[in-house]
Design a protein that fits this description.
This protein is an alpha/beta fold and 284 residues long. The protein is 34% helix and 22% strand.
Amino acid sequence: MSAGTQPGSAAGPVHVVHPAEVPGALVKPGAEPILKATAVEKWFAMNHVLKGCSMTVYPAETVTILGRSGSGKSTFLRCLNFLEEPSAGVVDIDGIRVAGDPLRGRSRQTRERIRQLRLAAGMVFQEFNLFPHLSVIGNLLEAPIRIKKMPRNEATTLAEGYLEKVGLIDKRNEYPSRLSGGQRQRVAIARALTMQPKIMLFDEPTSALDPSLVGEVLKVMESLAHEGRTMIVVTHEMSFAKEAADRVYYMHEGEFIEIGPSDQVLANPQDERTRTFLKRFLNV
């Protein structure tokens, strides 16, 4: 991303880049955003949950969304891949652009764009959502073979590679009921990776875990962040935000009220509401 035209250049006026716009250290110079959400709104009946939320994410960035429970974080994340239909606004992932408009019928073309949007955005949920009747390897093979029509041998090689990455290749033939919560969440991460998404969405991935199991999941996520996997993570885990996030978006009552580099937002938040929230976790 260019910092703008230099003073005295004939190319035009100077553009000063706000710190919130500066992408992470792993982002290649001149990279275009992989995700751009613009003025996303969400109403549930008379409850205005999201109030014009916008976000820009670049390839190889890890962005965390922080905020109190009920502030709209998970709803915003689910709007990015249309698991929740935005009441208004536009989501663009890797050039696949879909506008939220639940009052209009969906054309075949729009339904196909939503399908492509979901393929581009892998989702990891709070509750794992593994198929209980399938083994670990079966869970990983289901979508690549059925949805992407990948040959079984190719899908198996890919799935085994991701099981190695999350440290569970020895559990390939086990069933979810025989795994710990941390192991199931690591399987869920590997399953999302087998679809080779452009961006990974994590919705409070450790909130359903026993505290003793949180670390093993965060270790995998931090590894993905440091290797340049593009991720948006809704979390209350401040250690992850400090160690792995490039930027932080703080949400309050359906609005992003503070955005910036993680070290700046976590160490020196500018908004009093952000400071009040972070005092629960950090000495700010």
